[in-house]
Design a protein that fits this description.
It is found in: Nucleus. By secondary structure, the protein is mainly alpha-helical. It has helices at 23-31, 36-46, 57-74, 78-85, 95-100, 108-118, 130-143, 147-154, 158-169, 182-195, 209-215, 222-238, 248-260, 284-296, 306-316, and strands at residues 330-335, 339-343, 349-353, 360-365.
Amino acid sequence: MVAPPVAAVVPPPPLPPTQEGNPEHAHMLANVWMNAQKLAEMVKKEGLVYKKGKFSAIEEAQLSAAIEHYRVTKGLTQDQLNELIFSKERGRDTFWQEITSALHLRPIIAVYHHVRRNRHPLSQQGKWMETEDELLIGAVAQHGQQWERVSHIVGRMAGDCRDRWRNHLEDRATRRNGTWLKEEEEELTRIVTEMTVEQGRDIDSEVFWGIVSQRMGGKRGRQQCRIKWTDTLSSQMKNSGERPRWSQLDAYILVHKVDSLNVRDDTEIDWKLLPDENWNVWSAHALQRRWLTMKRSIKGHEEMSHAEIMEILKTKKSHVPGSSTGRKKKNKVTSAEAVVDMDDGDGNMVPVAGPSSVALTSTVVV
């Protein structure tokens, strides 16, 4: 009798570093199911640090490796794995705890929703058709915002139905499109300020856009409000009411801040960490868009690694703009890396990239 083939053993993913200064928090993130409100409370009361936002390409690879390792070691078929992922009894075994432990500082609830969304059989169906919109409107009229029930009628994921409804269809009769009126901008600024600054919250990252839209009477959707704020009004508010202009100095600072992070891929970047007290006009969303614009300006960037792209941009942005003009003007430049003054050979002191592990404020002569 021929022995059955032995399945290749997938090595376990490398363990991530524990949460700096508090390994109990890292264990908590991977094992305790906390919603957004509870996580926010832990941040304020316990100093909890965790990652939010889009999963990086490296995190995706770590998750895939962890899931496959779990499947092989448990002897599961792909169908059995899918049954486990989409089971309504999420605590019936240690699957979610084990794969979350393969990442660094991601809450288990975020991993749960991310994996279920990415592996859902109805995911990535493309552009919504008018007939689907009509189905969605009818399903919401029948079941309200019970998205799982709505999903079965429309044939789209529950989360996609929710987002389509909130971002495009809800209050469609009263919603405006196109250029914002000055009165609308003032109303949005007032509402966001009341919800953040007056309550000690961050004006860029702690805004509940669905509530903002409701307070505007549904005239603008949550997505419209978010984009208008992050792309325009946030930076204008931080700049004493004047609309700021992106400068070469901003580009220089951005490149060297990104370089100082020492990431393997720019999908790992938490853009909210880049602004500081001396360079805080631009929102995280605006900085990410500026970075993508600079990266895409490099011919053949699609085939390059992040390190290669970084070297090209550092060469382009190796000197502070205006440093060779001979004019003396003091500008404060705060970077996430040390800035070291060097003689450029013409008697001018200009900053070059120093050790990336130190953050300081340096006076640059330009």
